[in-house]
Amino acid sequence: MLLIGSFRTEDVDEKPFLKQLLLQTGTGMVRESFFGPLTGDEARELTRSLFATANVSGDPLIESIVKEAGGSPFLIEQLTHYGMMSDRARRRDFR
């Protein structure tokens, strides 16, 4: 069984179970990997792919989303969904 967990490094001191888990790091059973923020190119690629999946042209929003998200995939996803809703609202026929 493969179990992948994630946590914020600032939470380690406050969560005893994380401390206990990290004591086993480097053994055959537990490995630790650090992932930093996405690069600008990675963030743009993710943003474009999210817009493309929804068949929405997000080109005018991509750079502002990348800048605002600061490399966080979670924020990119959230901001992209907001951008999709805004685009759909602009195109909706209210007649």
Write a compact overview of the structure shown.
With 95 residues, the chain is mainly α. The chain has four helices and no strands.
How would you describe what is shown here?
- With 95 residues, the protein is mainly alpha-helical.
- Helix content is 55%, strand content 0%.
- The protein contains 4 helices and no strands.
- The chain has helices at residues 16-23, 40-53, 59-69, 73-91.
- Helix 2 (40-53) crosses helix 3 (59-69), helix 2 crosses helix 4 (73-91) and helix 3 (59-69) runs antiparallel to helix 4 (73-91).
- It is elongated and about 55 Å long.
- The chain starts with 15 loop residues before the first helix and ends with a helix.
- The mean pLDDT is 83.
Secondary-structure topology with pairs:
Layout: H1 16-23, H2 40-53, H3 59-69, H4 73-91
Number of helices: 4
Number of strands: 0
Unreliable segments of 5+ consecutive residues = none
Rounded to an integer, what's the Rg over CA atoms?
Answer: 19 Å
* Major sheet size, sense and barrel closure: none
* Topology as a string of helices (H) and strands (E): HHHH
Mean pLDDT: 83
Helix content: 40-55%
Cα shape: elongated
Helix/sheet category: mainly alpha
Proportion of strand residues: under 5%
Task: Tell me the span between the first and last alpha carbons.
Answer: 55 Å
Name some characteristics of this structure:
single chain, 95 residues, mainly alpha, 4 helices, elongated
